[in-house]
Amino acid sequence: MESLLCRTRSVVVKRVTALLLCTALAGCQAVPGEGPLTTDIVSDAGQSGSEIGRRNATVFDIVDVDGQSARLVSEYVSTTLSRRFGIGGGVGQVVIGIGDQLKVTIFEAGSDGLFSTTESKQTSIDLVVQPDGKAAIPYVGSVRFAGLTLEQARQAILDALKQKAVEPDVIVTSTSTASRIVTVSGAVGRPSVVPLNLVSETINEVIAKAGGPSAQPYETYVTLVRGKKTGTVLLKSIIESPSENIHVKPGDQIFVTRDPRTFTVLGQVRANQRVEFGANDLNLLEAVALAGGGSDRTVDAKGYFVFRYEEPDIVMSLLGQERFHKLLSKGMKADRVGRYPVVYRFDMTKPDSLIVGQTFPVKNRDVIYASRHPSVDITKFLDFVARPIGIVNSGVNVADNLNDFNN
Predict the structure, then answer these.
(1) What is the structure's pLDDT at 383?
(2) Distances (CA, A) of 330 to 47, 57, 311, 343
């Protein structure tokens, strides 16, 4: 019996020893973890899918954030609308369109003319421009108004009356501009069809005519549709950047939507969650604090990352033209609005990181990731190794007890 227990003990010890050796060879990479380590992110940066063994992997690059790069990102001014539609300096030549309502006033010098009497030397006629672009005037017939300015329409009527009326004169005024409207809908006080004046009007002015936005500018988005072009920008950006407050044109459609800005925080923080900004601006330190801060026991202070699709102007400024085009050749792709994937890295062990973090702005839909410290995986690995050792010790103790009992 004693020899059997000894053989059993020997077999158990050998098998567990072999298991521990295999686990040790596998290393800490075999230990389950919550997201990639800092070294994993750094090693994948700038690599194509084939270079890292994943054919369809997203190609991105890492930017180590310092004072200069933080200022570059924070001082960037979005030019989405002005770049796509042009700023415009005015309404240009305003012409009469189909559906417009006009008032034509005709004067005559004589007291007994086509349009004058002894009591009045003028006659006013209200017109609506018909779908064919014309409207009828007594003793003149159908006159084409569509496509003419008010002065051109006046001159056309005057020329037609010179041989029929006594020293005629004409005034043409616009009373309603159905052809010059902008549709404003969504999160505004009064969704409506807004008629445009003869002077230039901007997006903010038209939204104000529709009752103004119903939410705060930092969580309100404005989408402009013009023909086949569409552009969306935060109302806050329109207010802060005059170049984005572009002039509207007849037929434009403006959609105002409330969409609170959020960021997602993952990794070694108090809670993995999506968080609303709840403020006009938010910097990195404030965002981490809103999420409850990093875990002192597990976070890698050198591994705070912000994953973002960034504006191409910023990416080229940060990486340089040569590096940017090299990444494009490796397969870096833009998203549907032309932004490119970038990962910003912060080293919170450096004293100036508390200053840099205040100047680096968090943007809508950012993902903030706090990597775990490598020691966390080592601790898990040792714990994983210690468990079978405990089992062996228990088995050996049982064998010893049986041996003692048998003796």
Answers:
(1) 64
(2) 7, 11, 19, 17
